[in-house]
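Exercise 7.
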Amino acid sequence: MPVANTIKILEDDSQKEIILKAAHVVPNPAQLEALKDGYIAFVHFGPNTFTKKEWGTGMEDPKVFNLQNLDTDQWCLAMKKAGMKKVIFTAKHHDGFVLWQSRYTDHGIMSSPFKGGKGDVLKELSESCRKYGLKLGVYLSPADLYQIENPDGLYGNLSEYTERTIPRPIDGRPFKNKTTFKFKVDDYNEYFLNQLFELLTEYGPIHEVWFDGAHPKRKGGQIYNYTAWKELIHSLAPEAVIFGKEDIRWGGNESGNTRKTEWNVIPYEGDPDTMSVFGDITGDSIGMRSQLYNAKYLHYQPAEINTSIREGWFYRDDETQQTRNADDVFDIYERAVGGNAIFLLNIPPNREGLFPAEDVAVLEEVGERIEETYSNDLFKNATYDQAFFDDNLETFMLLKDDETAVTMETGEPVTINRLLVQEAVATHGERVEGHALDAWLNGSWQEVAKSTNIGFKRILRFPEVTSDKFRLRILSSRYWPAIAKISAHYYKERPPQLEIIRDSEGMVKISAKKDEFTWKRDPEQIPSEENVKITYCIGDGTPVKTYKKPFLLKEGTVKAVAVQDDVKGSTTVETFGLLKNTWKIHADSFAGENRAELAIDANPHTFWLSQAKPTPHYLEIDLGQKRTLSGFSYTPKASENNSMIEKGVIKISENGKKWKQLESFEFGNLINDPTTREHHFKQKVNTRFVRLEVTRIAGDGETASAAEIDLYSD
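Solution. The predicted structure, written as C-alpha cells, is:
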C-alpha cells in the first residue's frame, strides 16, 4: 500500500483495512521538519508587556509601547543555548498592534516611541535568527480588536466580497517580490492577506504560521477565508507548517500537560485539505483504534504542547510573576518531545527588550541537561543493526511477521535510565502500539520499562539499570514496525524539587515534591532524600537557614533549595498571604458541601461553589481587625472550568454593611491556564471587611467557585 499524508476511508472498508490504512499515513516534508525541530520557542511581546495585561483591548495608545532598547541577539543566544530550533513571534496579538513596519495600518510600532516610529522588532529578530541559525515563525492573530473597535475598522464591517489583488500597491512602498494573487474576499480578509504577504516575503524564510481560535470579541459575522490564506502561505512559504489547521494541532491545554499516548494519525469527518474550519482536538485519547473506525479520512497531524516559562504569556514583573524552574521545563521537554509531539515554550521579553535573567538561567540549565543527557549514546558500540546508529530516519529495520524483538549487546556493562526510540514515520508511518524494554539481569530478562506507541520519537524514563544486554520488545503494532533509531542515555538526577506548603494554622512545611511521573515502577515512590540538605530564607534572601522542622509564618515569601552531594537543585518559591485561621467568611450561596469556608481553608483541593444563578455572586470576609492590604490572589479549581471567576470588583467596608468599591479586576485565559492569579491594588488600603463580587464567569457560566482566596499586606 502506498503511503500518504491523508487517506480516505471507504464505506466498505473493514476494521482491519482501516488499521492497515492508518499504518500508511505519513507526515509531509514540512511536518517532518517540524517534528525534527522538536523544541521551539514562542515570544509574546507588545503593548501588553507595558500595560501588564494578558489580553489588550485594541484601544491602547501606541505610545504605551515605550520600548527604549531591544536586544534580539540576547533572545536568540538564550534560545540557542536552550537547544531550541525555531522561534514563533507574535507579530500581531488580539489587540491588533503590529510589531513590524506594515504598509496597511498605523496602529503599531510605526506610531510608537521606539526608534522614532522607525523600529521593526520582527526585522531585528529575523536578522538575529539568521545569525544564530534559528528558524523563524510568525503568529498573526486572526482576531483584531483594533479593527473591531475602531469606527473605521475593517473587521466585520459588512463589506462586499469582490475580487481583490494581493498585495494591494502602496505608493512609495513597493515589494521586491512581484508575485500577485487574486482572491474574492471582503475588507478584513484583504487586510489580513496583505499583512501575510508582508510577513512571508520580507522577513523570511518563514517556517511556521501560527493561528489560534481566540475571539475576545466578534463583530458583523466576520468570516475568515482560510482557503485564500492557505493558498498564499503555501505559495510564498512552502516550507512552513500552519498551526491550528491541517498541519499542526493544539495539544489541548496551555499548562504543558501531555497525553500518555499521542497518536499523530488523526480521524477526520471531512477532507482536511479542503476544510476551512478546524476545531480543537482536546480529548484524553484521539487516535486509538476504536476512534479510527468511524473516520471518513485519516490524516497526519502532529501536536504542539504549548506553555509559558512564566505565569501568563506576557511579561508583567520579576516580583510577583513566577518562572518555571529547570526541573519543570526539562520534564515537559522529555514528555512532549519524547512523547511524539512538539514542545513550544513561551519566553516573554521584559520592558527593557530583554529576556529576564531568571528565565535565561532556566533556559541555559535545560539546554545543558539536554546536551549532557542526549548527546551521548551509550549503545553506540553495541552490536545491532547499523540503521539504528545513524540519525537518518529513512534507514530502518523492518520487523516482519513473527519478529517482535531487537537485542543490543554492549560488550561492557552500561548504566542507563533513558531509552530513545524512533519509527521511520516518513516512509512507513506510525505502527507500534505497545513496546517494552528488558535488561539481562542475574541470568534472565527483566522488564525495565513499558509504554504504548512510539511514532516519531519516544523517550522511556526509568530507574537506572546496569547491564551489557538489552532488548526492545514490540508488544503490539498496526503493521510491520519500521524501527529507525534506538539509543540509550543516562540522566544525572538532580536534588529533588521541593514543595512548600502552609497549613491553616500558619505552619510551613518544606519537603521533596512527590513524584507524579507515571513511568516510576512504584507510583508511590518519591525522590530520594538521602543526604539532602534543605536551606531556605524568608523575604529578601537573608539570613539563609537550614530547614529542620515546620515553622510559623504569618505572611511572606519562602525560597528553598535542596542540596545533595554538593549539587544545588532548583529554587522553589512560594508566597503566602495573611494567616486566615481567624477570618470569618460569608457567601451569597453555596452548592452541596462546597461552603464558603473552603475558600479560605489553606487547602487548594477543596473549594467554594455557589448555586447557579445570574451574577453577581460574592464572598465577604471579616478579617477580625483592621489590616493594611496591598492586593489579593485567586486560586481557581481546575475541575470547575465553568465557574472560574474571570471578572469582578473588590469592595471594602468599615462595618460589613455599607460597602465602597475599591477596584475592579480581570483574569484572562483561566480555562486553558487554571493557575493562581494575583491582583495588586493601586495603593494600599486599611480595612477590616473585604467583599469579592463576581461580575463575569469564564465560559459564561452561572456558578462561581474559588479554591483559595488570599490577601496580602506587603
